Amino acid sequence: MTTSTTGTTTRTGTPGPVFGRGTGHEQVVFCQDEASGLRAVIAIYSTALGPALGGTRFYPYATEDEAVADVLNLAKGMAYKNALAGLDHGGGKAVIIGDPKRDKTEALLRAYGRFVQSLGGRYVTACDVGTYVEDMDVVARESAFVTGRSPDAGGAGDSSVLTAYGVFQGMLASAEHLWGTPSLRGRRVGVAGVGKVGRHLAAHLLEDGAEVLVTDVDRDAVARLREKHPQIAVAPDTDTLVRDAIDVYAPCALGGALDDRTVEDLAAKIVCGAANNQLAHAGVDKALADRGILYAPDYVVNSGGVIQVADELHGFDFDRAKRKASGIRATTARVFALADEEGVPPAVAADRLAERRMADVGRLRGIYLGS
């Protein structure tokens, strides 16, 4: 279906025969506003557990096909993440095609907000790569279905705080499963990416008594972190970091961090980080297991941020959201236990747990129709 109004276009449909992908997504919406330059894609993977919740990524994709592939993958990941986080939300994601440093304007963000509003609550947005709290405040001027807003606008603010806290909880569960003690004290942890989340994670690790080694393409980010924590060591690049004598590897930048070469080179016995979609392709999880490396599935341990923004929809309470994010440790332990019981890698076990909840609860709800 295609509808147009004064330079604004929406194409919406269900993947499969229409898009030739057979992905199982409920709905994909292509959004274009010529006046503001907006080109965006919103993907809803599932609303079986409730309205789809997921952030908006603003990124200079080379082609629309590349943007579609990314948003479909991210939306599915959000469905699994929200399910295992125990939230009454399905999974969705949006991407805005463009350079956020050059193309982001109030008019563009407000046009995007109107598209989000047009979905009637089937999709609730938040921050992601290239978008920030102040951007969500602008989007919220046109839509009631926005989280990750500033405290002044009634929101929860920066979700990276609880994202990092949740990753740390997952790391404690990993340490207990592998070494019998829920602590990183005396362990060497390599953190690749010290931006929004990585810098907070590094602080948690230092407080727990870990030795921290970091790297980031943004040298200013590394310098700012070392100003606050001068005891942190720095690796020149990620390749060097993964080959270093580390106990835990924490990918906290963009996806695809775990490919065949990285797995082969990796010295760590645990991988637990904040980045989304860490496995570069199918089979990497098995390669990790074959090498005796314990992988804490990314969408399990990095769900603290979505727990925070979901809480915002009920009137944000940081302590309440933090208590819920503390449950990431127990959820990670459940994943490892199921993996051992069924003889599968943790990534497979996590998917099975998420799919069971979507099936068991979703059959009671049917398809969410919006408000």
TrEMBL record:
State the pathway, as annotated in the record: Amino-acid degradation; L-valine degradation
PROSITE patterns to which the protein is assigned, alphabetical: GLFV_DEHYDROGENASE (PS00074)
Its UniProt entry gives the catalysed reaction(s) as: L-valine + NAD(+) + H2O = 3-methyl-2-oxobutanoate + NH4(+) + NADH + H(+)
Annotated segments matching region Disordered = 1-21
Q: Return any one Pfam family short name.
A: ELFV_dehydrog
Biased amino acid composition, Low complexity:
1-20
Asked whether the UniProt record includes Oxidoreductase among its keywords, one would answer: yes
At the top level, the lineage of the source is Bacteria
List the SMART domains hit by this protein, alphabetically: ELFV_dehydrog (SM00839)
Establish whether keyword Oxidoreductase is in the entry: yes
- InterPro entries tied to this protein: Aminoacid_DH-like_N_sf, Glu/Leu/Phe/Val/Trp_DH, Glu/Leu/Phe/Val/Trp_DH_C, Glu/Leu/Phe/Val/Trp_DH_dimer, Glu/Leu/Phe/Val_DH_AS, Glu/Phe/Leu/Val/Trp_DH_bac/arc, NAD(P)-bd_dom_sf
Any idea where this protein resides?
A: Cytoplasm
Give the first-level EC class, as a single word: oxidoreductase
Arranged from A to Z, the UniProt key words for this protein are: Branched-chain amino acid catabolism, NAD, Oxidoreductase
Q: Which Gene3D superfamilies match?
A: Leucine Dehydrogenase, chain A, domain 1 (3.40.50.10860), NAD(P)-binding Rossmann-like Domain (3.40.50.720)
UniProt EC number = 1.4.1.23
Glutamate/phenylalanine/leucine/valine/L-tryptophan dehydrogenase C-terminal domain: residues covered: 157-366
The record describes its quaternary structure and partners as: Homodimer.
Family, according to the entry, reads as follows:
Belongs to the Glu/Leu/Phe/Val dehydrogenases family.
The protein here is known as Valine dehydrogenase
Originating organism: Yinghuangia aomiensis
